Amino acid sequence: MTQVEAVVAHRERATLRVGDVFLKVDGDEERLAREVEAMAAAPVPTAERLWHRPPVLALAALPGTSLGRLGSPSTASAQAWVAAGSVVRRLHEALVPTWPGASLEDTVAELDAECAWLLAERVIPTELVTRNREVAQAALRPWTPVFVHGDLQVAHVFVDGETVTGVLDWSEAGAGDAMYDLATLTLGHPEHLDHVVSGYGDGVDLDVIRGWWSLRSLTAVRWLVEHGFDPAAPGCEIDVLKAQLRHPT
Description:
single chain, 18% strand, alpha+beta
């Protein structure tokens, strides 16, 4: 009998694996439709779409393994990380999607609201919040929109040896800041930032990437807690915030 594995499940959406098929269930049918459109438009490897019957999208499993996991050292080679950087560059040079991503104003408002919650609830030390809010400021500048994946976690990039076989989970794709994708890919894996940049090429601002590391971690904590995840797990978001304190100003 083929087993059913819950890959990710929370109140907004869930992904199940049944043999070599992934079933993604999304309560927001418009978002799922945009994901299908983004996958079709992206000039990079994606999972084969088997069928789409809202609110479910069926995808074939990708060959290889994920580049890594947040909270665990990556076993992928340096060359695989370089290849991932090249794939991200190809995406960012594609035609920008017609639907907008988060605006700078919305991003600032979300960050300020989440920092206020963290301080009020005393979830993490005040110094951790205030220092990372300062670091995050580097990301809060106007950017030229490009085609971004929008949630380019290391677990969403699959590789086989030195080849990227596919990129998963395009639900947040749209027009956005290129540095945000690079920051998301390297979040918790700063030792591979140079490899990704080597594959990506010019135009990288390391201070902005570090700013996005802080911003993404600060804004993720409440959501993770409320959805049953642990941002304090070793190597995860709170450890990323702590590491930012050790980085020279």
